[in-house]
């Protein structure tokens, strides 16, 4: 459907809140009532999209008790029927643009409307009212249709797609960096100054950005200073103080808009750390130092969010990130090993015991055996990697069991017991 140019909600985050109130797994009668109140404000605006009026009618009808008392059965059938008629008519009416009226069934087919809804609409309009169960199911199907074809596209819509969105996010990050660095330099904390008003405008612009695009731009182009002398040293485990003053307000603002900001931020930092590994590149000494400094700066930001606080990384995200980093330790990446050790020192000691020993001396003078089959060698390497991952998984599982397993007095676990589905032989 065509995206509305003017809308009654102030930001995409506000529309996402309405989506959570109506369609999230945790939605209940109370949240849907709050969503109805918000939609009542929206539909009073002339700029409200047509689908919002239809959505309000459907949610209002479905909020009635079902099944109703016998005395209210007929009146509820009429409410359901009217909501269904408004849904079908409201969806197809914008397509009646010719000089002659086209059949509603043809217009509905262009919109992928279920034919059953069109048939029930015709029956409810010109014949006896359909049964209450049929109407209730039809309203649920209509609500699912609006969710898929109207609400989600508008929620995910952006002015540009792909690289256009990324370039816009990077431009916003660049403007934020310029203004905040000037405020830090002049120690300006007022909101009525020119820089304060600029920051306020940038906050509103970030509200319209996708979280993933904004975080990607911040990590790739913002968190690491261009000058190497401004980056943290090899022994530092925290980002520079000036960088924290520049980026913490923006990240906290994104956190107020999206609860998943810490997880997305940590995952993006880990991805950037792994993708910039110099595994198959030939670099000179200066390039090696530059890349190591860049990656270590990313690591210090990951340490900062790992410790907790308002932007602390959730525990489930920590487990996933540690698993991703551990799988790459076999490549002998010094920066990655230091980062992993700072995040989980005990886990690094256990993993180093599993890794093959590496010779300290160089490989000069070693002869190549031409009789070695490369396919067999690759299979052995893959088998070793699989064995390492299996050992790592078992160690993590055993550690979690030890941490969470409290024996109940009078009970003990059988030595020969192993889990299996009910009804199957152990």
UniProtKB/TrEMBL annotation:
GO terms for cellular component: Las1 complex; preribosome, large subunit precursor. One of its GO terms (molecular function) is endonuclease activity. It comes from the Eukaryota. InterPro entries: Las1. One of its GO terms (biological process) is maturation of LSU-rRNA. This is Las1-domain-containing protein. It comes from Cutaneotrichosporon oleaginosum. The lineage of its organism: Eukaryota, Fungi, Dikarya, Basidiomycota, Agaricomycotina.
């Amino acid at each position: 459907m065509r995206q509305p140019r003017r809308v009654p909600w102030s930001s995409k985050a506000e529309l996402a809140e309405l989506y959570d109130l109506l369609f999230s797994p945790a939605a209940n009668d109370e949240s849907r009532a709050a969503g109805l109140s918000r939609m009542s404000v929206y539909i009073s605006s002339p700029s409200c999209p047509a689908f919002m009026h239809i959505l309000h009618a459907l949610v209002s009808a479905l909020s009635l008790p079902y099944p109703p008392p016998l005395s209210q059965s007929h009146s509820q059938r009429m409410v359901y029927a009217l909501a269904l008629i408004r849904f079908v008519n409201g969806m197809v009416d914008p397509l009646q643009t010719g000089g002659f009226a086209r059949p509603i069934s043809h217009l509905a087919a262009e919109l992928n409307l279920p034919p059953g809804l069109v048939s029930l609409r015709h029956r409810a309009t010109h014949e006896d009212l359909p049964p209450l169960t049929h109407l209730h199911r039809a309203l649920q199907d209509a609500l699912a249709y609006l969710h898929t074809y109207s609400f989600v596209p508008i929620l995910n819509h952006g002015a540009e797609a792909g690289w256009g969105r990324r370039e816009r996010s990077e431009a916003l990050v660049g403007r934020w960096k310029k203004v905040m660095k000037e405020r830090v330099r002049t120690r300006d904390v007022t909101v009525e100054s020119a820089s304060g008003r600029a920051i306020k405008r940038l906050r509103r612009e970030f509200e319209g950005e996708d979280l993933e695009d904004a975080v990607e731009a911040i990590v790739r182009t913002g968190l690491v200073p261009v000058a190497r002398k401004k980056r943290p040293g090899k022994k530092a485990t925290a980002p520079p103080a000036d960088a924290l003053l520049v980026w913490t307000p923006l990240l906290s603002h994104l956190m107020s808009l999206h609860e998943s900001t810490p997880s997305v931020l940590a995952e993006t930092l880990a991805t950037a750390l792994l993708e910039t590994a110099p595994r198959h590149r030939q670099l000179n000494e200066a390039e090696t130092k530059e890349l190591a400094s860049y990656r270590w700066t990313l690591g210090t930001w990951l340490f900062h969010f790992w410790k907790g606080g308002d932007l602390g990384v959730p525990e489930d995200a920590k487990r996933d990130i540690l698993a991703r980093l551990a799988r790459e330790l076999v490549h002998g990446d010094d920066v990655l090993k230091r980062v992993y050790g700072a995040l989980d020192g005990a886990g690094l000691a256990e993993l180093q015991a599993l890794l093959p020993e590496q010779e300290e001396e160089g490989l000069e003078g070693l002869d190549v055996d031409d009789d070695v089959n490369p396919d067999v060698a690759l299979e052995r390497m893959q088998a070793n990697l699989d064995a390492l991952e299996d050992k790592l998984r078992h160690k993590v599982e055993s550690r979690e069991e030890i941490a969470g397993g409290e024996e109940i007095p009078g009970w003990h676990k059988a030595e020969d017991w192993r889990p299996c589905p009910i009804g199957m032989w152990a």
